[in-house]
Fold each of these.
Amino acid sequence: MKAGIVVFPGINRERDMAIALEQSSGEKPRMVWHKETDLSGLDLVVIPGGFSFGDYLRCGAMAARSPVMTAIHAHAARGGYILGVCNGFQILTEAGLLPGALLRNASLRFLSMDCQLTVERADTVFTKRYQKGQTFRSVMAHGDGNFFADDATLDRLEGEGLVAFRYAGENLNGSARAIAGVYSPNLRVLGLMPHPEDLVDPLMGGTDGKPLFDALAAA
Amino acid sequence: MERDVNQALAREFGLNAEEYNRVLEIMGRTPSFTELGVFSVMWSEHCSYKSSRVWLKQLPTKAPWVIHGPGENAGVVAIGDGLAAIFKMESHNHPSFIEPYQGAATGVGGILRDVFTMGARPIANLNALRFGSPDNARTRRIVDGVVRGIGGYGNCVGVPTVGGEINFHPAYDGNPLVNAMTVGIAPADRIFLSAAAGIGNPVVYVGSKTGRDGIHGATMASAEFDANSEEKRPTVQVGDPFTEKLLIEACLELMATDAIVAIQDMGAAGLTSSSVEMAGKGGVGIELNLDNVPARETGMTAYEFMLSESQERMLMVLKPEREAVARAIFEKWDLDFSIIGHITDTGRITVRHQGEIKADIPLAPLNDQAPLYTRPTVETPKQEQLNAARIEDRLGLTAGLRKLLACPDLCSRAWVWDQYDSTVGGQTVKRPGAADAAVVKLEGLKRAVALTTDCTPRYCLADPEMGGMQAVAEAWRNLTAVGARPLAITDNMNFGNPEKPEIMGQFAAAIRGMAAACEALDFPVVSGNVSLYNETEGKGILPTPAIGGLGVLDDAAQAVGYGLPSWLDIVVIGKTQGWLGQSLWLREINGREDGAPPPVDLAVERANGDFVRARILAGEIRACHDVSDGGLLVTVAEMAMASGVGARLSAHPREIPGHAYWFGEDQGRYVVAVPDAASFIRASEAAGVPAVRIGVSGGGDLTLPDGGTISIETLRADHAGFFPAWMNGDNRS
């Protein structure tokens, strides 16, 4: 699957993401500057973590209005795959490509630590290499990861099987129903707060995030 | 706006009568208001090192792997694979007291710029922090602000914060220390320097616009504090990590071309120090037209432009035909790019503003005739060695250990680390709390750097020479304990008022001790920073020569941490004598801060460390932790808490009292976990290195030699309690 990583000013985990994608696919992803408008040839568009435009407004709000977003909307409309991690997840919710919003962590502090994620379904292009109900370790590093949506939306997400991952154990950032990641209705857009791309090498403490990239590479 | 220049104004600007007379002599006339501003910041303690230069010269700065030592923006050492590590530590103490969040944040921003201005991509940040007593209501607000500031800046800019240290002591009540360190990596043959060259070459300003923030910050950093210091809040700068991130990417993109002749960040004293230093080092002149400086505010005067410490700005000298290339890169990143002057052959700095010449100063005397003081020194009286047998152990081992693990100086720092992004970049092999030094791998290579910051200020107060030596030795030891080859240090000398002979005596003695350790351990100083006048209302801080150490591992996979694995022998390397003077145990359990600190024997230090490193690289050591604050028992407990695996400890030798053996802080020691103690000890004896088996790992409890048993869970709860309870308390000021 041909992947591209969108770089907004202030994004800072694009290198981590490129390493994880290349390790699984053997192919360097294309780096896409936020002012580009042509995503043709890409199967997977990845929006990595960071602080786009400093996140001085609401997290992701500025990036969601960048020139590249028109092309990303079109990519989603034609059934293309999109992965948004951390700030990328925030941008996807701000762009209306995923439901809900990411609020300040309940502790009102930045959280940088390991967390455990439960795989809610293992039949999507992102999770085929995990088992349903499996928990795996991931790294969280965010100040605004507290997933919020109204009850009707949460009920719908759960009812339609659009919850991708939940925090197992302590729900550190206070997310509604411990939701760590959600899908679009066609299961082709995934947003999540933790960073699977930072655990793909035993030297960094584990490879729990690697199955996600292996699955994407094989798709 | 502009005031009459005379001796009284000069004094207000921090220049004494003799210094002002020297200005008059150099200028041959009364300087203009702007010129006086330039002299006063360039000759401030912060920029001129006028009290410390004579002593700093004693530090060893050379080794075959040193590419650039002190004198550049940061130190540069070769680390193999054609790469160089560029690093430095710098203080932001005064601003962090006045405005903790912005003070700490801009401290991080400033040190990042010192490193990437030389062509390096920053790969790690560390910080050495000292705060007042936790009982002082103000301390909590300062800790909260400093931690948020370091995290706020470092997390946003995308450089992992991987290590550091925190101490508390009432001596820092009115004067916390915030020392920030950055490490970057660059190709060894593509290092960018600041010496300007090429008559007529354009001088280019890039980055943020200039405002009125931070004017005279360098002068503030060169004076004591009093009760009215909060009035100095306007001299604290405000950081913008987003712009810094853009500046890093834009500068690195430009550095990949051949456009740059010289480059320097605008740090303390802003446009003044960057332009004066660049032209001065190049032996040329520089002419600036302030009308072209991007301004954030209207109506700024030449004086304000020259002295502003607005953040996230750089000054470059470009090759003339490469302007367009450079401009395109900065415009892509939405950063200001403005040609504000050119290099001249006059040997002077000439500043124009609105059609007038506002400053015209010869550079050579401004740089070369900066004041240099050999201030009087008084030696710190030696304290006597304590006899451990005469010191009562009121608590016993179990209660003593629990109390130590819970005390502010030893308790878990997880509350702090958890607010710093330590994994961005995806190369962090050893995160905070996993090993004695942070280990960060180089992207795409096996090679890794190991990083640490160290100083034990209570040793330095009791015996500055031994304390200085110990700080360097402990940094070397911490790098060794992960298996790294220690290469070089950066030093951040935090002291009180140098005009007091006893303070200058501390400084001189600390330098002596550091120099001896650097020499003996082949561990030269390649960069550093001096922060003096750390006093409030006449009360000085503990002398704190903070050391930032850098080492290298050829293969990151060889790094060891201190988490204790199961079913291994536990061995202590190095001689245990039971030294209780200045120990944490003595302070926390007996309420005493006396005695001579433990001596460092540099030959023993080297022999023990070289042996440990070789055994780690041979794969024989599965976990390693140096013995420092709290002594042997605390070291083993920390190893157990890190992995959740317990240990059973053996009886100590009869000739040493138990509390002295287990809590003494003898230097040059490591606790290691090995599969077979007997053969390991045979090898150590062959190398002339003392080693003793002190127990075995396994289970979920720590069993002490007196029979006391504590579960690791209990130890962890003791250890983790202080920070969250203290910071979430309800008497927040």
Note: The radius of gyration of chain A is 16 Å.
Amino acid sequence: MLIVQGAVSLGLIFSLMAMGVYLTFRVLEMPDLSAEGSIILGAGTAARLVSGGFNPFVATFIATLVGCVAGLVTGVLHTKFKIPPILAGILTMVASYSVVIRIMGTSNVALLPHGPNRVTSVFTFLQEAGLSRQAAIILLSAVMVVVVGVVLYCFLGTEAGSAMRATGNNRHMVKAQGISTDAMVILCLMISNGLIGLTGALWAQQQGFASVDMGIGTIVIGLASVIIAEVLFRVRNVWARLITLVVGSIIYRLIIALALNLDFLSPTDLRLLTAVIVTIALTLPLIVEKFSKPIDKTKGRRK
Amino acid sequence: MLQIENLNKTFNPGTPIENHVLHDVSLRLEEGDYVTLIGGNGAGKSTLLGGVAGTFLPDTGKITIGGTDVTHLAEHRRAVYLGRVFQDPMTGTAANMNIEENMALAYRRGKRRGLGWYIRAKERDLYRERLSTLELGLENRLSDKVGLLSGGQRQALTLVMATLKQPRVLLLDEHTAALDPKTAPKVLEIGSKIIEAYNLTTMMVTHNMRDAIRHGNRLIMMSGGRIVLDISGEEKQKLTVEELVAKFSQASDEEFTGDQALLG
Ligand SMILES: Nc1ncnc2c1ncn2[C@@H]1O[C@H](COP(=O)(O)OP(=O)(O)OP(=O)(O)O)[C@@H](O)[C@H]1O
Ligand SMILES: [Mg+2]
């Protein structure tokens, strides 16, 4: 039960990242590696501000904005300086490691209770209202996921959101319709990395600390959720896809939790496991297709 | 409506592959002019249209559209004045989005994209009405993904999109070249019908001499980055394919001997 609770709370928090990754990888069709930078920027900013006595909600909001700035940098590098998207993302990511140490002042910040109310995170107020820590995390994260999901869905349906989806689809057409593709790319990267910064901020508060190396491999976690969602649920609507991203993110966490529970695996195997899960999810459709081919052939003949 | 003055463009200047593609091209289109543009491969037809559309900035020269100087305007900024249909049916539409989403994007050409919903209910009536003129049944498929349409259907849709907001100039670059022999004339007819209905100032590139003669009120031939022939009015109506072919080979011969002279 404890394992499931932990998986659900982390899964909910990281589904915000999954939405961010979905925006760049799927909506914009531009792989963005600055995600690993914005997640530690978000975590580091929130940790520094909360431990410095800031209201955790304000801190989380500022952390989200810092994530947006990381997206802005990648976007400008790509659109204005014509740096290929992957390299632009890597540059931002690498720079973030230094920036986050500047923000935190050290490479590690613990979120110790402080102030008269002994605040340590955005979850504290729910705990004071009588919820267990785990329940507080799940409740607040779920609320955030719903709010972000609804806002994101509505945005993608607006004129600007429609222009953004078209930019990922066909940049020639978008320009011919009088839309600045550069502006759309930058906007999408900012929203995406803002969400990932928010993920980092919540994650740091959930685990009680932020460290400079906590972001390594998280892009693959985000991608894993997206791909699990796509392999398991063949939906076409944007709203259905957003819901499946949350489910995919929780499923990923459950798989990881169960696997790490096995005796021969240790927590340090997490990243290897993640890579294996993504690989399996990516190849599964191929395997299924291969084994279902003979059936298709007979069907074709009967026609 | 469209004025091009002394346009010059050299690709890759200062390198071994330097290519002076447009030589002092000047051209003036009056309102309602429907110009067909012919010329051999590499004559610079697409480059001329690209210069008008702003896919690159010219080295020298000036372009005004309906009195507005657009010479230094970015491609997406001058799109407000232009309707464009491309050779590749994939280029003009967003395949992953449905017909009404594509049309709604085109309907807002030149407007700021805000946080209003991407389409308003009453727009759908307009879209159905415009699509029904194609007689392809697309008006009943507004929520179908454009990727499901055939190349001809996509080009017809792109034509409707390009003219949904009346453009000052319509640019068609071999927009039927990728279509099969049965579909191509249909799309061409659809285009001409729309152009006549709205009296659109149009430049249409084609490799088909007969189409070039039959459509439009003016015919221009390019060769080696220059306009070598400009026929309009009665003279164009009387033009035969044979005469045009003769003029065409004459122009390319001249270009050839010109190059020879340079080499010698
Ligand atoms: N972006 C570019 N960079 C370098 N060279 C280019 C570029 N665009 C066009 N060219 C060159 O300019 C010349 C004219 O090309 P253009 O596409 O305008 O010809 P065209 O008349 O449209 O020919 P076609 O009938 O084959 O379409 C060609 O030699 C081409 O290689
Ligand atoms: Mg061409």
Note: Confidence is low (pLDDT under 50) at residues 260-264 of chain B.
Amino acid sequence: MGENGSGKTTLALILAGVLKPKQGDIIIDGKPIGSYKRKQAIRKIGVLFQNPDDNILTTKVSNEILYAPWIQKLDEGEKKRLLNENLALMNLKGYDNKGIFKISYGERERVAIASLLVSQPNILIFDEPTTGQDYKHKQDFIKLAQKLNETHTLITISHDLEFLSAISHRVLLLEKGKITETHINKNMAQNNSRQFPKENMQPSLMEN
Amino acid sequence: MQNGIHFISSSLDPRVKLIVSMSFLLLISTIHDALILFLSFIAVLCAWLLAKLPIKTVSYFFKSIALLFAFMFISSTVFSRIAPKERLTYIEIIPAVIPLIGGSGIYAEILLASITFSFRTLSLVSMALLVSLTTEPSRMVSALRKLRCPYELTIMVIITIRFIPLAIEQWKKLAAVANVRGIETSGIIGRIKSIKRLFTPLIIHSIRRSMQLAYSLDARGFRATKNPTTMENLQLGSRDYLMLVFSVLLIALSIVVLLEVFSIQNISVELMKLVV
Amino acid sequence: MTMETEQEKGFFKRFATFDLVVIAIFVGVWYGVQQIWFIGLAAIPAPLSWVVSVIVYELLAMTLVLLAATIIRKRGTVFLIFFLHGLLEVVLFPNIFSVIGLVSDIIPGALIEAFFYITGGYPNNSLKAGIGACVRAIVFYPFQLLLLTVTYPEYVAFVEFFFGVPYGVFIVLNVIVGVIFGFIAGIIGYRIGLKVKEAI
């Protein structure tokens, strides 16, 4: 986490191999991320950008989810299997023929996640995934993230302490492109504001 | 070109700048003498100095202008239509004693023609750039309004100008998304493939943005009145009138040159004959 | 999204705010992509870069124009896109040649509108869209290339040296390439337009 302009999204893009770092390298499975071809790299790491709409490349849910398999020229049987599996995982059964922009914001976010999971990466990066979500959808997303946490490595960029406290084992604080603090405390929301600037603390509306 | 460029707000009315710029260009179109065109270019450079633009901006654009000059000069020297060679003055550049390339040179008349053409183009480009860099697009649009351009059209111009960097930004975002879905977007082939793959998503995103912008415009009373006032009301000042008089003089001079009242088109040729 | 306004007269009356914004944004996309891709290409004096720049220019411009026409489907859309594109050049780079460029943008726009009017309205099939898009190349290239001989007189010798063909033949080649790729672009624009309309 960190203030706006601290370099969080840039870091996410560097980790995913989309941007090249000026110094140093990102090593995944013993090799620099830049040495993988894109088709191989997406099997290692996937990125969900902040606004779900920014993740959309097609007009239909099934086309969106199957975008990477289509690029990789998988056979129809395999594509169908992956589609059904990921629709079920994201609670989107029956959505395959729906128009992407005819579904809700939260549903589009789940489609965007499914489109990453279909490549079966080990590492997932989420950039501000709870921004703009209502309380119920945020809780649903936290449950989803906790489930994904069991099988994947999650790297999350967020200002949302409640979300981070629910899923993070470790939190790094970024300031002006540098990591200034590391916390291995799970319950970040209960921590006092001594370590974090007051501006980063968010009021939360709790549902009874 | 618009991103990050600081517009120095000039006290001259944009309409006047347009008129001065076009009169100047009309004049240099009528002149075919290299020396006078060179002096015209110097005059434009003086105008650049008076504009007091940031050094970084000036050096960026002058590097581009220098490149343009080099390209035009070389290509027009090499590819000029030429009269029979025996009627031209040959200038040997590489002495004949040097093996293989010795004796190479150019024709003085062609050199002069290239200089003429290059400086005419340079004056044109640097004048237009100066007007562009010293005028905020919104002021130019206000000028259009004063010139009775329809209100809808002026708003569309502003939206388009504002959207150009957003379109580029959106393209980059989509390229990043395509990257994380396994598409190579770097290299020539990657770029060509990415155009094919990202064009439709770019259009869809643009249209969705259009919807939001349209709601926003309607909510602010776009087209609610026939002739809305503008935030900036352009008024001509004494400096503007002075520049208008200057423009009239430039136009008059163009006519004088065209009618060949004074013989100024051969100054450089005479000078060259003296030198060569 | 309509409301009673005093602006209910004149050319713009038929367009909703959304239509005007879409046109403005499409011209922004056109100009933005043009700036990225063409500045380098057009300056390279080689037959290959000339062909590539004509092809890409036609594909870009006419795809966007026919896309807009298919989505908005109101008479005057094509003309307005070309007019706005030309006007943008004048506003961003004011000089006599951008004014002439405005004229050279308007003429094809008007002719394409005339073509659609004569053939019974904006395209409802790919063939009509493709043919409409061709009209631009027939007018635009001769106009621009003849104008170039005035602003850049050495261009004729330049072309004849590099391409080994007389200038008149070069103009015809431009028209042929422009017509072929304009036709393809018209069809692509129409089809993408239908897809986009369905998606939104």
Note: Residues 108 and 161 of chain A are 23 Å apart (CA to CA).
Amino acid sequence: MKNNLKNVVLKYKSLIGLLILCMVISFITPRFLTIPNFKNVFTQVSVNAVIAIGMTFVILTGGIDLSVGSILAVSGAAAAIIIKSTGNVVLAIIVALAIGCVIGLINGLLISKGRIQAFIVTLATMTIFRGVTYVYTNGTPISGLGQSFSAIGNKMILGLPIPVVFLVIVFVIAIYVLSQTRYGRYVYALGGNEDSARLSGINTDKIKTLVYVISGAAAALSGIIVTSRIGSASPNAGVGFELDAIAAVVVGGTSLSGGEGSVVGTIIGALIIGVLNNGLNLINVSPFYQAIVKGLVILLAVMVKKKNK
Amino acid sequence: MAKITPLLQMKNVSKYFPGVKALEDVKLEAYSGEVLALLGENGAGKSTLMKILSGVYNKDSGSIIIQGSEVDIKGIKDAEKHGIAIIHQELSLLPNLCIWENIFLGNEEFNGITRRINKKTLKEKSEILLKDIGFSIDVDTLVKDLNVGEKQLVEIAKALSKNSKIIIMDEPTTALTDVETDNLFKVITKLKNQNMSIVYISHRINEIFQICDRITVLRDGKYIGEVMTTDITKDDLISMMVGRKLEEQFPYKKSPKGHTILKVENLSFSEKVRNISFEAKSGEILGVSGLMGSGRTEMAKTIFGEYKKSSGKTFVDGEEVNINSPKDAIEKGICYLSEDRKKEGLILGMSVGSNMTLANLKKYENGAKRIDKVEESKSVQEYIKKLSIKTPSAQQLIKYLSGGNQQKVILAKWIMLAPKVLIIDEPTRGIDVGAKKEIYDVLNELKATGKAIIMISSDMPEILGICDRILIMHEGEISGILSKEEASQEAIMKYAVGIKN
């Protein structure tokens, strides 16, 4: 009986951690447990969470995608350029997403067929496409993107901020794919043991390439959200976002070596970090301390996971 | 043989894993200057017991007594301190380091002041250790460039380097040729005469009668009994192990042989596979014999599309097929069960059920690309029953199953696909007599339904027992083909070493 309780606690440790965190913060400040604050937290978190969900697919296969921040910037810039030249918001969104997919495809092909390590490939594309962003923005933000575009990041649908709606849709699709489809099963198999997966007849090159396309698309979607919320496409957008995404994935319990984890964990990881930041803000802790706290949370999460083994 | 007090006593040892009682009140006694066999079916608990002794696992209860005093073994270094060394069934060498580095890993001698490793001394010591077990090789060779048998010998040298009093060998000869096995037995005898205590875990009853003095038998995690080798017959020993009388060890079933299912013509790959041509017919088990390094696995992997052939053609049911990947091969009805299940067969972090259906998921896919988990579960249960796979449930992580049961899961994975040709590479390596027979029965059933089975094996009795025809390979080429009637150990060996007629 005692053993059972221990197993249950360990299984849901991330969720329990999140709940405890919420309880502690709400004790300290009454402003935490309010609907406007929650909406705020979710909106803040949604950008990172969308990228992190894409990143989860990559990390589950044992890979990594360092280029998501740059993909966010270059697709945001592309959307801005299209809006300024054609005024067509829908076209801007499609092109932005397409760019995310294409860069993801480049990453995926170099890693799977090119047999170059993911770290190196995505480090290179991270640098290259940051440079591309600078070239196309001439180093300055592109602003004046109009009402209809800014609605995406700032308006609501069904009482929820649109970025949160995007997050929910992405989350539902991701969970479905990973837990219910053949492709999802293959992603876990590939991360667990690539040789065994290939010898079982799985097209490992295809699976690998696709996860990077997914990650690129997610980053591009976040690029659209960010550009819309701020109202301009900055050449510095997304810098460091890859680390926040990886942090969310890791805190949520997905293993960096692949084969183990879930997007549910990732969302909880993103929420833990987001709630922590929010709580510290409400208590008026300097943002400098927030970085220290975030790093400690990551270590703590991994140590708890290790103790479980 | 010092028989007064046992060098080692294990009393009432128990160990539990989630959902499994691996050991219950087990006892073991080992004496200096004696070779003790530890015998039991898969899942009997032999490996677990030895992992507790060598510090890899912690026991849940019981006591370990060495030279009369109780000891607490909390980890591998503790075990080493007490003079216990273990050579695992699953080799634990580091492939990117060379031989002498692996042998002295963790025990490097270095200069106290400069902290520099005494490379020269260690290299010399390594050469001596290896020569003692009949292995001459440049100790700067990287371990990843050695084959399985050679790695095994380095493992043994590593254990010997630690000046142990008790050496545990877990299935040491599974990847060794007859020549190397003889060498190993010479070394074991030498060690025995130096008053060392050797615990020898093996399923190979013939070897046990050859080299062991006493036998302890475990079954289902419990201690069954202890006998002197001279006091028992093979049949009685098997009964003790299995709990029932085993009829035939190698059941051979004659089936009507049909048309050629697989034809391979002039197949080549690098230097390892040279101009191989043969046919596999419906309703037959075609054995592939040969010494280590003869290219059998390479040939199988080339047919399967894992290796890219440099020339040659493959025909399935008379039609030429183009196979560039395992996926292609499977689509054409060719399946391959790898010799290294840990590295190439299993996905350790996944469940028994997920491992089993991994190659067949398309079958359970319904609309919206969804896996019908009910159907999947039905298939899994069907095969768990069919192959008598011992597991608490289909959700159990496969890493907790014993080697034999893991192998059965992988076998189920391929049989589920109803392949035309099933290539199996060392299918019963590291598997006990009871499970072996179950696998042979499955193979015979498959054969009777008209499949062609190609069985690569280094187990001579197995090849002679259940195969209809036997191919022998030598240095990448087929050096001979024998029918069951023509075949004998000598005939096979003759072709295996390259004497042609």
Note: Chain A has a mean pLDDT of 90.
